[in-house]
Design a protein that fits this description.
The structure holds 2 protein chains of 2 kinds. Chain A is an alpha+beta fold. Chain A has 5 helices and 14 strands. In chain A, 25% of the residues lie in helices and 42% in strands. In chain B, helix 2 packs antiparallel against helix 3 and helix 3 packs antiparallel against helix 8. By secondary structure, chain B is mainly α. Classes of the chains: A alpha+beta, B mainly alpha.
C-alpha cells in the first residue's frame, strides 16, 4: 500500500538572489513509518518568483533529497589460498543512507563542476572517506563500490530530466522513497540554475519517523533492552506452549 | 503483504517470513535441531541485516524448541537429567566461545572463521551421519539382524562420577556428556547456532543414547542455550526484532508440531538420512560461496560508535 498522507502544502519562500527565488511545496513534510509501510512517492513542486524579465539563459532546476548519514566500513574480498575472504577495508566517514538527485537536463549540462563542489550536489560529492590505510592504493574504488551497491538497492539515484519545468516558472518532480527507509531528518534542496551557475536555492526538512507499534518496539528495544529481551523470551515460550496445547486439543477433540 | 520491521529497518513480505518460520519449525520437530544454521542464511537472503538475523533467529529457535519439547515430554522422550548435564557443559562452553569470538573479531576475520567452521562441521557431521544411516538402512533391507552394540562400554564411559540416566537406559560417567556440552557450547557461540546438528550425532554416536530420546533431549537444552543468546543480543546489541520474531515464531510453532508428528511416522534411519542430506546441502552452499568468485567483491557494514 502506497502511503500518502494528506497533502500538506508548505509554501516557503527561499532566499532570493539575482532577482529570482524559489517558492516550494511538498506533498508531505512528515513521513510516518507504519507496520505496513512499503515506500512512498514524494511530490516536490514549486514556482520561480521573479521581479524582472526572464533572462536569456535557459533555467534549470535540480532537486536533491538526502537521508541521515552514518559512518560505514567498505570491505573488499580477494582470492587467497583458494577462497574468497575480506582482505581490505576503507572507512567512510560520511555517507547518506538515501540520496536522490532529480534534474531538468543531464547534470553537467545544467551545472558546472565548481558549483557541484561548492554545493555538494552530485552523488559522489556526498561520500566523504577518511584516509584509507597505506597499503590501499585505490581507495576511490571503495567509494565507487559503495555508490554502486546503494544504486542497485534503490537508495542512491540520479534521474536526469525527471524535473518537469513549465514556462520557466513552474516545476515539479516525484522522488521515489524505498521501503527500506531509515528514520531521521531528510534534507531537501531545490536549486535554480542559469548558465551552469546556481542563482537561487531553497532548503527544507522532511521528518521520517516510525509511529505506533513500530515506535513503541523501537523505543523499548533501545531504552529498556533487558526488559525487551525478557519480553522476547516470554513471547517465544508462550507461543511454543500455545501451539503445543492447541495441537493437542485439536487431536483429542 | 509487506510489513516494515522496526529494528531491521526493512520492509519484507509477511508470508515469506511465515514460510521460513514454518519450514524451520518442521525441521526442528523432525530432527531435534534448532534450525539456526538454516534460518540465518534464509533471512540474509530476503534482506535482513546479519546482526538482526542472527539474534532474531535465536529467538525463533526458543519458541519452536519449547513447542517441540512439550510434544516430546508428552511422549516421555526427554531425558531431563541428561539435558541438565549437557546444559551445564553448554553454558561453560558458550562462555569460552564468546571469548574466542571476541578475540577473532579483533583480528577482523570472524566472518571467514564462521563460514569455515560451518563448512568443516556441517560437512563432517553430514558425511558421517549419511554413511552410518545408509549402512543401517541397507542392513534393514537385506534382513540382516542388527548386532546391537548400544551398551558397548568405551573407555570414556568408565570414568568416575557415574550417574544413572533412566530415560536413556544408560549408567555412565557424567564426564563425557559434560565435555560434549562444553564442545557444543563453544561452537554454538562462535557459529551463532543452537548446536543441535552437532549435539544430536554426538548423543547418538559418542554417548550411545537411543535416537528416540535424543531429539527431545537436544531440544530441551537448545531452549536454554538459545534463550541465553537471545537475551544477550537484545541486551548488548539491541538486535532482536520482535516483529520479525513473532512472524517467524507463528510459522515455527505450527511447523514444529507438524514435524514432531511426521517424525513419529518415519523410521530413525530414514530420519537420519534426511537430516544428513540437509546438513550436507547447506555445507555445499556455504563452500560454494567461499570458492566461487562473488558477483560483488565489496560489502558495506555500519560502524558501531558507542
Amino acid at each position: 500500500m502506497r502511503h500518502l498522507a494528506a497533502a500538506l502544502v508548505l509554501l516557503l519562500a527561499g532566499p532570493s538572489t539575482a532577482g529570482e527565488g524559489v517558492v516550494a511545496g511538498l506533498s508531505q513534510d512528515r513521513i510516518s513509518i507504519t507496520a505496513n509501510f512499503d515506500g512512498s512517492d514524494l511530490l516536490i513542486y514549486g514556482a520561480v518568483k521573479r521581479e524582472e524579465a526572464i533572462p536569456v539563459h535557459p533555467l534549470d532546476v535540480i532537486v536533491t533529497v538526502e537521508g541521515p548519514s552514518t559512518p560505514l566500513t567498505v570491505r573488499r574480498k580477494s582470492h587467497v589460498f583458494g577462497i574468497w575472504a575480506n582482505t581490505a577495508a576503507v572507512e567512510v566517514d560520511h555517507a547518506p543512507s538515501f540520496y536522490a538527485v532529480a534534474t531538468t537536463r543531464p547534470l553537467y549540462e545544467a551545472m558546472s563542476w565548481t558549483e557541484d563542489l561548492r554545493h555538494k550536489i552530485s552523488v559522489p560529492q556526498m561520500i566523504r572517506s577518511v584516509g584509507a590505510p597505506q597499503e590501499i592504493s585505490d581507495s576511490p574504488a571503495f567509494s565507487e563500490a559503495l555508490i554502486r551497491i546503494r544504486e542497485n538497492n534503490g537508495l542512491y539515484s540520479l534521474k536526469e530530466g525527471s524535473v518537469d519545468l513549465r514556462e520557466e516558472t513552474l516545476f515539479s518532480t516525484e522522488i521515489d522513497l524505498p521501503a527500506n527507509l531509515v528514520e531521521g531528518e531528510y534534507r531537501t534542496r531545490i536549486f535554480l540554475l542559469r548558465d551552469l551557475g546556481v542563482v537561487a536555492w531553497h532548503e527544507t526538512v522532511i521528518d521520517v519517523r516510525k509511529v505506533g507499534l513500530e515506535r513503541w518496539l523501537y523505543e523499548l528495544a533501545t531504552g529498556q533492552p533487558a526488559l525487551y529481551g525478557s519480553l522476547a523470551l516470554f513471547l517465544a515460550a508462550l507461543a511454543g506452549w500455545a501451539a503445543s496445547t492447541a495441537f493437542r486439543l485439536l487431536k483429542n477433540g | 503483504m509487506q510489513i516494515y520491521l522496526p529494528i531491521a529497518e526493512v520492509s519484507v513480505n509477511a508470508f515469506a517470513l511465515l514460510g521460513i518460520g514454518g519450514l524451520v519449525g518442521v525441521l526442528s520437530g523432525l530432527f531435534g535441531v534448532g534450525g539456526g544454521f538454516l534460518i540465518t542464511p534464509l533471512l540474509f537472503f530476503i534482506g535482513v541485516p546479519p546482526t538482526v538475523a542472527v539474534a532474531t533467529g535465536a529467538n525463533q529457535v526458543v519458541a519452536s524448541s519449547v513447542s517441540g519439547v512439550l510434544a516430546h515430554l508428552k511422549r516421555r522422550t526427554v531425558d531431563i537429567r541428561m539435558g541438565l548435564v549437557l546444559l551445564v557443559g553448554g553454558l561453560i562452553g558458550s562462555g569460552m566461545g564468546v571469548w574466542v569470538f571476541n578475540q577473532l573479531s579483533r583480528l577482523g576475520q570472524i566472518d571467514l572463521v564462521v563460514q569455515l567452521s560451518y563448512v568443516l562441521f556441517l560437512g563432517l557431521v553430514g558425511l558421517l551421519m549419511l554413511q552410518e544411516s545408509l549402512r543401517a538402512l541397507n542392513r534393514d533391507r537385506k534382513g540382516i539382524p542388527v548386532s546391537t552394540k548400544r551398551h558397548q562400554h568405551l573407555w570414556l564411559h568408565n570414568l568416575p562420577f557415574k550417574m544413572k540416566f533412566r530415560a536413556s537406559g544408560l549408567y555412565i560417567s557424567v564426564v563425557p556428556p559434560l565435555l560434549v556440552g562444553v564442545f557444543v557450547g563453544v561452537l554454538a557461540a562462535i557459529m551463532g547456532v543452537g548446536g543441535g546438528f552437532i549435539m544430536v550425532p554426538a548423543m547418538i554416536y559418542l554417548l550411545g543414547m537411543p535416537t528416540k530420546v535424543v531429539i527431545g533431549t537436544s531440544l530441551f537444552q537448545i531452549i536454554f542455550v538459545t534463550g541465553f543468546t537471545t537475551f544477550m543480543h537484545a541486551w548488548t546489541n539491541q538486535s532482536v526484532d520482535l516483529m520479525l520474531a513473532l512472524l517467524l515464531i507463528l510459522g515455527g510453532v505450527v511447523g514444529a508440531q507438524i514435524g514432531t508428528r511426521l517424525g513419529a511416522k518415519l523410521k530413525a534411519e530414514q530420519l537420519r538420512v534426511l537430516l544428513a542430506l540437509l546438513v550436507l546441502s547447506v555445507c555445499f552452499k556455504i563452500a560454494l560461496d567461499l570458492l566461487l568468485m562473488p558477483s560483488e567483491l565489496y560489502s558495506i557494514t555500519p560502524v558501531k560508535r558507542p
